[in-house]
Model the fold of this input.
Amino acid sequence: MRSLHEITLRADEVEALRLYNLKELSQTESAEQMKISQPTFARIINRTYHKIAKALIEGYAIRLEEPQTPL
Done:
């Protein structure tokens, strides 16, 4: 089996996808849930879409980063 290149989605990117696409919240509502500004949310979601498109078009595996849990 050949080794696949990987693209890693960070925990904040996965959360942005969940809120915006699965829960169908607006960017403003999603940003509020994540406790970030709407422009920051927009940058995160755009970066995430770019990574996903690259993985789909170029055949990369997508790895999901584990969320960090406070000790």
